[in-house]
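User: I'm writing a short methods note and want a consistent example. For Response regulator transcription factor, I'll paste the sequence; you return only the structure tokens, no commentary, since I'll be parsing the reply automatically.
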Amino acid sequence: MNRAPHEIRIVIVDDHQIFRTGLRAELGDELAVVGEAANVDEAVAVVTATVPDVVLLDVHLPGGAGGGGAEVLQRLAGNPATRGIRVLALSVSDAADDVVQVIRAGARGYLTKTASGAEVTAAVGRVHSGDAVFSPRLAGFVLDAFGTGGGETAARDDELDRLSAREQEVMRMIARGYAYKEVAAELFLSVKTVETHVSNVLRKLQLSNRHELTAWALSWRLL
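Assistant:
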């Protein structure tokens, strides 16, 4: 049977089979699980073989060179066939070091395992569409990992001064993971106008994409 056009193909990577089984049962019908893995080497092999749209990746994994989820991300990024696959970290850990490590390695977001099946399903959809997604409490933990002194604050303010008030509003919402349609509805703008603002923000801040924008906003304590 052909899968529905709206289905998003995913691989679940976690070293606890009970968790993988439970998560599969809770995910929405719009997600199609095409593979599972329990360690670093299995993850790289399964993702390479299935080339899913999104990988749900635990941070702490056995195997490989001991680098856990970050190692999986690095190895996938080194393969042209898997370089563009989007990864959403899903872990019991809410430690800032864990979050920062996998985000720097290329993950598009980070959820803790307290998230419901519906929340994970929604987050996968948003990551698939290009958004960055974080569990609500994680921003504070991540921000604590980035210290800002007086000189850095001045540099941040200088960069913010390049943006109009409306561009700053759009920037913060996009960095928090809102979809263009959600920003448009919240700010009473057209989607096209939101896209234009985002393009201007990326150009003025010399950033390449929304993922870099989220990392920039977190580093400057703007979320």
